[in-house]
Amino acid sequence: MRWLRFALCLLSAVDIVLIYYVEAVDRSNFKTCQQSSFCRRCRGVQPGKSSYELHLNTLKIEPSSIEVEMINTQNGARFRFQLFALQDETFRMKINEWAPLKPRYEVQYALQGEPVLNKLTVIEKTAEFISVMAGANKVTVHAIPFRVDLFSGDQLVISVNARGLMKFEHIRPKPEQNEAGEKIEDEGGPHIDDTLSDPGAWEENFKSHHDSKPNGPTAVALDFSFNGAHYAYGIPEHADSFALKSTKNIDPYRLYNLDVFEYELNNGMSLYGSVPVLIAHGNTHTAGIFWLNAAETWVDILGTADQNVVSSIVNFVSGSATPPQVDTHFMSESGIIDTFFMLGPKPKDVFRQYTRLTGTTPLPQYFALAHHQCRWNYNDQDDVRNVDNKMDEYDIPNDVMWLDIEHTDSKRYFTWDPVKFSQPTEMINNLTAKGRKLVTIVDPHIKRDSNYFLHNDAENNDYYVKTKDGKVFEGWCWPGSSSYLDLLNPEIRSYLSSQYLLQNYHGSTLDLYIWNDMNEPSVFNGPEITMHKDSLHYGGWEHRDIHNIYGLLNTVSTYEGLLQRSDGKLRPFILTRSHYAGSQRYASVWTGDNTAEWGHLQITIPMCLSLSVAGISFCGADVGGFFKNPDSELFSRWYQAAAFQPFFRTHSHIDTKRREPWLFDEPTLLLIREAIRTRYSFLPLWYTLFFEHEQDGAPVMRPLWVEYPSEVATFALDDEYLLGDRLLVHPVTQPGVSDVSVYFPGTQDIWYDINTYRKVQGGGTVKIAVTMSKIPVFQRGGTIIPKKERIRRSSALTHNDPYTLIVALDRNGSASGTLYMDDGQSFDYREKKYLYLSLEFKGNKLSSRYIDTARYPTRSWLERVVILGLPPGITRAQAESKSAGRVTLETTYNTETQSLIVRKPAVSMAEEWTIVLQ
Ligand SMILES: *[C@@H]1O[C@H](CO)[C@@H](O)[C@H](O)[C@H]1NC(C)=O
Ligand SMILES: *[C@@H]1O[C@H](CO)[C@@H](O)[C@H](O)[C@H]1NC(C)=O
């Protein structure tokens, strides 16, 4: 975030003028692959010359795994190769040094637990290879050169080291230097690989920063080929297209959590988070890999979205070319090779397989899915009160007010500015009275200030990350000189957790939730605006080894704190900027400091889709753009788009103009209000989708190919997506347009415009007219969507409100759906205190049935049913439920839209019921 402003204080007036005109990211702050010595070395490996071999005579077979010794024939280094069969068509492969000079870091906290093993059977074993079976999968491990082929049924899905790009730099003693400073190789060692000749092998400089690299070169790299895959997706976070691009003539995609000021679009530069999960999809098969490594990582992609491949896909589909393939190459600076293979075969299988490893997002509180109002900064409690009141005055629903860093007493987190926020509890309670919440920011840098209890505790207990020399690490961040809690240490995490308890966080209440920002961590004066890689953590690990999980550990602490604060009763809500695999269990994620430009609005879709397929469904982007000022058109369109994205928060930089909706002209205000109200009307759907996500791991916001896996036209779409299997969303993300071209999938499917109820046949692209008030969203025929159409100040106030059901019929005149409800805030739903309903329309009969034995005593009833795509002829309807008996209902049929409205069925949603059309 926003370090420029801070940097300005340090510079002369001349410098300020220069910096002021820097419009976008300063690329010189960030390394290219060439500037990163391990990336250079790994990328320099020539294909087809793998020097790694397995000694199959050392094979050990266990019930769920095999283990073999591996050797690098170039230098004699020995490794342990292990393959584990896991439940649900998943495999794990680990390669580590046989006897490393020092232990190598193995990532913790990303997995939700020890993966569940499956039984493995050896089906063939020769001197050259061994084949094993587990579930429906066969894996063949070839010895010379080393290669692993993973099959789903008969189909080869993934090949490991097929291109021979493996590199595993074993830890070695630092070569001694002679008086002239030249390295002396130890005589017996056959060091004929290029590792040691790299000038960056034992130390490395970047700009004014020095990396002492006490362990020397420790990189690991491996290639994975995906047979039959048209595209690869995932490995967020990048501001790039959803389908990953070929990196043939450009830098690889980089995964190294960084605070990138004014990031640019359409490139593979690192951003705030790293999720080393890649999903490869083709029209017959989906598979994925999870590269469990927390060090800086680069990923090369070949043969995907560049022009040649697109034409080869077209040929392939028409049956005239070789099958498509995506080749990938993962390169990490340290750690071990630890890779999970999710073998599908369908997209939803891969999401389930992956989230069985790292978990799903627990059902958020209902408010978290509603609208959030944020700014850097709401200046004081009067400002908060005014904005809050204006929301009501202008009939704009809002659930959460947010406070950025300026609310604290001099950037000391867990404190309040004594003048501007003198009555925090009363301020929160005023919000709570309307069903609203407050979120405050808590960043992980700690102000070095002897008047700050947190700093004193950290100093007294030795809680800070250390430099390579064992001194407390100091860097610059918002408060000025700062140090950073060593969150790798469980004791320090629980200390941080305890700060969230009500008795410790003075002025807070159970209605205050948390925003963890700057947790890459951001260090303004550090290399690439982060911590030095040779800094030291708990257990003696270098920052290099664990960098990409620092933000994850930050949210683990926060989550535990919020959980303890309510004795485990209330579901925590956290927003984080930095993230890793597994972050979805603790926090929602936003795409960081974007800009008020149309391109940034457009990129929100591929960015959130990339996070979603990598397990992080609760994603959003700053509405309106963080930097710069959006004009009315961009601002309205952004609200309209974000109203259909999972996390919905408006936010802006301190130097931007105030942008609360009523500060715009009346038409803009009305458009924004309507977009937010539309979001509220769909909250029952959002809540149901997130409940289902917690069960099955399928993304809430999902690419079309998840539902239409063989429809090649859906594979590279960046401007539309599905919500569950029910809504197709294609927001307007261009200025001045009067129509948008929407691709409607499914040749057998019918889509209904949610505003006009107009039908569109699936299987092609259709131009849809868009006035300024139009959000192009379509309900799939065959689905039922629950809504609440009474709009109130906050979602909490709608808790007992009645439901409307939109029943959109398929070609056969049928539809089905689900509806989930509970108390909206507690963990009671884990004790079966919820209601999960199956809604079905068939043969002119709509019914609601309990899916399971859980019950929640809702007071909501059914207010309205709208049936879309119904032929004329119905004149009345009859509802039947246990407590109300049979009741005849009024209906209205609209011939033009072929829709029927059934008014006030008035059945209780707590009961099973039936409505018959006659
Ligand atoms: C709380 O609301 C009351 C009534 O509107 C108001 O007088 C008071 O100033 C508010 N307190 C804070 C801290 O905003
Ligand atoms: C309609 O019914 C036919 C026959 O039962 C079935 O094969 C088809 O999948 C159904 N179509 C839709 C869109 O559900």
UniProtKB/TrEMBL annotation:
Sequence ranges assigned to domain Glycosyl hydrolase family 31 C-terminal in this UniProt record: 697-785
Transcription regulation recorded as keyword: no
UniProt record, GO biological process: carbohydrate metabolic process; N-glycan processing
Residues in Glycoside hydrolase family 31 TIM barrel domain copies: 361-689
GO MF annotations in UniProt: alpha-glucosidase activity; carbohydrate binding
Family the entry assigns: Belongs to the glycosyl hydrolase 31 family.
Name under which the protein is recorded: Glucosidase II subunit alpha
Protein's gene: Ganab
